[in-house]
Specification:
alpha/beta, single chain, ten-stranded mixed sheet, TIM Barrel, about 350 residues, 14 strands
Length: about 350
């Protein structure tokens, strides 16, 4: 059975027209889903009973069940949702009041199968890809939770697909979700306000470049040479740094967009002055920005962030050599909602 939250507006209108309903009815249903955050046909007030019955008989409407919610002092909120099959996923709301931004960090898989040495999500491996509807409903649930008197006030302004899983390993479902979220008649979040993170799936980066949707790309780099990256990110054995950077440069040339490289600084792993210099040489001349992320604690993994002096030195080496760099502001680590901390269980 199809899910209403997996259909674009034109697809929904076409299907209902084929079933004998006027085109405007499909538009009304779409508006209830995305302009009002309603997931139950009974609450769609201007929809006739005949159409409600047809929808109930022929479609599902994904409605994630909230199992737990925790809020950090900085306003970050982490959600644990249960899926229809009993699996759990997490998502995060990130407020930036100084810039009036409201961001959501969204998962694309149940778990992860890529085994990066510093990330909690992959500890128990990959269960499955999320459906388009399960990806979209995370956004809808966060939007509903932060809304005040009416849905989408305040409105989510940014989406980062940096939650559980490797987004590009679920390419088709992800991109369908992106198109619906971006739709003027959907959540109307601009492509340039969304970012897809990847460990470096080269064929999918090329597909993303060919689409030229103008969506942001963030590459989880974390090492400036193949020897170290092989050790901490097994995907590098399949797509090495040369292959990865070739695909990234192609993406930049085709889209005209700057790419972000994420670099988690881990004490005595990838934080030495020599590695900072290697990173400068690796990225020199590429239209990019480096986001340095001091490692967040994960009890099951033997990693910790470097002392501040080491972080500052690494940052300065990049900055002094013309690499655009920033130090990620730590948000939500107290509730295990920060980079690398998402799992499938209550904190």
């Amino acid at each position: 059975m199809k899910d209403l939250k997996e259909l674009k507006r034109n697809e929904l209108i076409k299907e209902l027209k084929n079933a004998g309903f006027p085109a405007y009815r499909g538009e009304q249903v779409f508006n209830w889903l995305y302009k009002n955050g309603i997931s139950e046909t009974e609450k769609m007030k201007n929809i006739p009973g005949e159409l409600k019955e047809y929808l109930n008989d022929n479609y599902e409407i994904t409605d994630l069940k909230e199992k737990a919610k925790s809020q950090a002092a900085d306003g970050t909120i982490k959600y644990l949702w249960e899926l229809k099959d009993g699996e759990n996923i997490e998502g995060v709301y990130l407020p930036f009041p100084e810039s009036a931004r409201h961001s959501a960090c969204i998962s694309t898989q149940v778990g992860c199968g890529l085994g990066c040495s510093f990330c909690a999500t992959g500890i128990n491996g990959l269960e499955r890809n999320l459906t388009t509807a399960e990806i979209i409903d995370q956004v809808l649930k966060i939007q509903a939770d932060i809304s005040r008197d009416e849905f989408a006030e305040p409105r989510l302004s940014n989406i980062v697909f940096m939650g559980m899983g490797e987004p590009l390993a679920n390419f088709e479902n992800l991109m369908q979700a992106v198109e619906i979220i971006n739709s003027d008649n959907g959540l109307n979040i601009g492509m340039r306000k969304m970012t897809i993170s990847t460990v470096g799936l080269v064929p999918e980066i090329k597909k993303l470049a060919d689409r030229n949707d103008q969506i942001g790309l963030a590459v989880s780099l974390h090492a400036p040479n193949d020897r170290l990256r092989n050790k901490i990110m097994p995907i590098n054995k399949k797509y090495n740094l040369n292959q990865l950077l070739t695909a990234v440069i192609d993406y930049i040339e085709k889209t005209g967009r700057r790419v972000t490289f994420e670099y988690v600084l881990m004490d005595s792993v990838n934080d030495s002055p020599e590695l900072a210099v290697q990173l400068v040489e690796l990225l020199r001349g590429i239209n990019c920005h480096v986001n340095l992320i001091p490692a967040n604690p994960v009890p099951e993994l033997n990693i910790k962030k470097p002392v501040q002096k080491v972080i500052d030195s690494f940052y300065s080496t990049l900055d002094n050599n013309g690499i655009q760099v920033s130090l990620r502001r730590e948000m939500g680590s107290q509730i295990d909602a920060a980079c690398g901390q998402l799992k499938r269980q209550e904190s």
